[in-house]
Automatic annotation (TrEMBL):
Biological process (GO), any one: methylation
Highest taxon above the source species: Bacteria
UniProt cross-references to PANTHER family, sorted A to Z: CYTOPLASMIC PROTEIN, CYTOPLASMIC PROTEIN-RELATED
Molecular-function GO term, any one: methyltransferase activity
Name of the protein this chain belongs to: Uroporphyrin-III methyltransferase
Keywords, in A-Z order: Methyltransferase, Transferase
Keyword Metal-binding found: no
InterPro entries: YeaO-like
């Protein structure tokens, strides 16, 4: 599986493959045409409460990561669909966070890679 990560605000590229937004909330100031999405998998994103607690600095990165991994265990159907897409084509997981190293797409990519090896 080839999975890339990219901010939704970055310019789409020919080598993105399938562009999948993995945020629960639509990115501010971006039209659907500009986003050039193939899918929006908002049900696989962190819960509103978890996202808010992390952005309000009520959770550390490690706490957020662990809590989100627990939430992902409840998204079996969505994960299976995403894994199938990843097996068929290159996939770019899109996120809106300014922090490129500490966001839900990073956790999701790691989780998908772990599932692939099991």
């Amino acid at each position: 599986m080839e999975i890339k990560l990219k901010r939704i605000y970055d310019e789409p590229a020919d080598n993105d493959g399938r562009r999948i937004l993995v945020d629960r909330i639509w990115p501010r100031g971006l039209s659907k045409d500009e986003a050039q999405l193939d899918e929006w998998m908002k049900d696989i994103a962190p819960s509103d409460q978890l996202r808010q607690d992390f952005h309000d600095d009520e959770l550390s990165w490690g706490e957020f990561r662990n809590a989100y991994l627990q939430e992902l265990k409840q998204c079996r159907n969505e994960l299976e669909a995403l894994i199938e897409l990843c097996k068929q084509d290159k996939v770019t997981l899109l996120y809106s966070s300014k922090d490129e190293q500490h966001n839900n797409a990073v956790v999701l990519k790691d989780y998908l890679k772990m599932l692939e090896t099991n």
